[in-house]
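Entry, Tuesday afternoon. Goal for today is a structural model of the target with zinc ion bound, before we commit to ordering more compound. Inputs were pasted exactly as handed over by J.K., no edits. I checked the ligand SMILES twice against the vendor sheet because last time a stereocentre got dropped in transcription.
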Amino acid sequence: MSMTEEVAQHVHLYRGIADTHTHLILWQTKEMDWKALFQTCVDNGLELALDVGTNTDTFEERLSMVSQFDQLYITDGLSVSKSELPADDLKRRLGELEKQVAEHRGKGKLIAVGEIGLDNHFEYGGVQAQKELFAAQLDIAKQFDLPVVIHTREADPDTYSMLAGAKLGRAGIIHCFSSGWEWARKYLDLGFYISFSGNVTYKKSEPIQEAAAKVPTGRILAETDAPFLTPQKVRKYPNWSGFIGYTYDCIAALRGTLPEELAVQVTQNFRTLMGLTK
Ligand SMILES: [Zn+2]
C-alpha cells in the first residue's frame, strides 16, 4: 500500500474543522500525494486550511496549488532558517517578498505574512541576523496591513518584546505554541491568537496542555504543521491535515468541551482574525 493510501485510512476530521498551519509542498517529501489527500480532507469535512510559506522562491508554485481548492489560503514569508543566507541574497528575497505581497494581497488567497520569527534551539544565522530578518518582515506586514504567523522556539523574551515594539495594526498567530500559560497570557495581551499543534498530544507536554486548557475560547486555534508533529495516536506516520481531528480530541478533552464544538469555534476564530467572510 502507498503512503497516501495508508495515511488516508486513518483520516480523522469533524465537519467544519480547520487546520490553521500546514506545509503542502512538504507533504510530497513524505511520499504523500497532496492533492489526493487534500481532497480526502474536504470530503471528510475540512472547511479551511492555511498553507504556510518558508521561502519566497516557492510562492508561485504554492499559489498554483492553493488555487485548486476553495478551502485553502496562503501566507508568504522567509522563515528564521533563512537568516543564515548571505546579506545580499536576503535583501533580494525581502524585495521579492514585498513584491509578491503587494501583488497578491486583497485578491482572496494571500492573507498573512509568515512564518517569521526567532529560534534559539537552532542558531541559523545567529541572534542578530534572526532579529533583523524578523524586524524587516514585521515591517512588511505592517505596511500591507496583514496578520503575521509567528514561529518562536526557546525565544519568548525576544519574540515578545519585538512583537510588542512593532505596534502591528493587525494581530496574528503564535504557531505551534510550545511554552506555558505565562507566555500564552502575554501574547494574548498583545492581541495574538494561540495555535496548538500535535505536540500538545505528547507525554511531557504538561505546560502546553495547561495553556491549551486556559486560552480563551475566542482566541484558540489548532494546526498540524504537517508533515511534522504527528499526533500521538498516529505518530508512526507523517502528518497531514486529515490527522487534525486527533489534536482537536486532545484539546477538547483538556477544555471539557466536545471536539465538534471546538472545530466550529476554531474555524470562526480563524475567520475573525483573517477578516474572512464565509
Ligand atoms: Zn510551519
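The chain has a mean pLDDT of 97.
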